[in-house]
Amino acid sequence: MIYNEETALKVAEFLLKKKAVKLKPSEPFTWASGWKSPIYCDNRKTLSHPEVRTYIRQQFVKLIEDKIGTVDCIAGVATGGIAHGVLIAQDLGLPFIYVRSAPKGHGLGNLIEGDVPVGKTVLVVEDLVSTGGSSLTAVKALREAGCIVKHMVAVFDYDFQVKTDRFKEEKCELYSLSNYEFVIKKGLELDYVRAEDTDVLKSWRQAPHDWGK
Q1: What's the number of domains the chain is made of?
Q2: Most buried in the list 115, 129, 188, 200, measured by CB within 10 Å?
């Protein structure tokens, strides 16, 4: 679910102008999963630009206050959600923890780093959500550790149907600052996308696993 249209368009503009999102319908990228894609998103680039990361932090805080309410702790998903999560936690004066993609291979073998707030409400922060698999793995890890997790926030969301189904099944509500639809819309407005490419871009999101084969 998008927080609001104004924010979605502004974040999409930042992502395009800072080249955090690249659109190449005629020269597809190959994701780690093997999927062919006309879009590549690297939201870590936003952290290099103070005006962008400040805007993203401010919008996350407004989103939390408007849509989610009181939480006890912020959890970032490694690695992209860590920096944004720290900024949010600092702004709200809340504890911060983060969830690894896999348990640490030495020492205590931690999967969650920081003081786990058992029995408390934790808000999960992601930079990017695609199919939702890795994001919801973090949610499950926090719940298994005794945390209450009802919501996740993300900078960007591809808005795949499989993602929507997975979050609904896990009873975790996702709010994103922007998504694929708004990047295409802003891309057309700023001439990052040609009108004749929109059908290709839309068809990819409908069946990404088969696209380009």
Answers
A1: 1
A2: 129
